[in-house]
Amino acid sequence: MVVHNGGANGETRVVTEAAHKNYETFLDAVAAAQAQNMKFALGWIGSSVEMFKTQAEINLRVLEAVTEQSRRQQEVSRTLVSESVKTFVDLSYPPLPHAAEPVAEPETDGNGSLPIEDFDRLSVEEITPRLRELDAREVEEIKTYEKRHKNRAVILERLDRALV
Q1: pLDDT bucket at 108, cuts 50 / 70 / 90
Q2: Sign of the C-alpha dihedral, residues 9, 11, 14, 19?
Q3: What is the sign of the dihedral through the CA atoms of 151, 154, 158 and 163?
């Protein structure tokens, strides 16, 4: 309790004490509000962190699903392109109707052999000198046979020279 000494000093003291009490009450209210604000902020931050963590997990699952779908789509595309190319090639290069027919052997000298004996087993060096002994019909016969069998470029060139 406040004792009045009288006068202005006593009133000043009463006013000062009242102001001091009001100020303490105000500071207590500010501190309580600050504590409440801190509790709210920490709760908000905590829930935000939890929310971000949950969203990151969802994003990861979505990314994994999209990656798997993309991989499957790539496989399907690869198969589609492969089958399309195969179909295109099949349509562009149909089997020739005469491909299954046997190729007729060129006519030989009557006993079933070519004008040069063992022609298929001979090398270019062994064939070349023997070409001089043949007439044009025999060279053509060997040329036709070579084209249908081994089709060796060097021998065909030598046969062409022999015809000149």
Answers
A1: very low
A2: negative
A3: positive
The first and second tokens of residue 67, run together, are: 């990656």
Q: What percent of the chain clears pLDDT 70, i.e. is strictly above it?
A: 82
**Would you call 104 helix, strand, or coil by DSSP?**
coil
Are 142 and 159 in contact, with CB atoms under 8 Å apart? yes
Domain residue ranges of the chain, discontinuous segments joined by +: 1-97, 119-163
Radius of gyration (Cα) for the chain, nearest Å? Answer: 54
CA–CA dist 159, 164 (Å, integer) = 9
Residue 155 burial by Cβ neighbours in a 10 Å radius (0-12, 13-18, 19+) = buried
Residues shown for the chain: 164
Predicted TM-score (pTM) of this structure: 0.34
The count of other CB atoms within 10 Å of the CB of residue 106 is: 16
**Residue 100 pLDDT more than 80?**
no
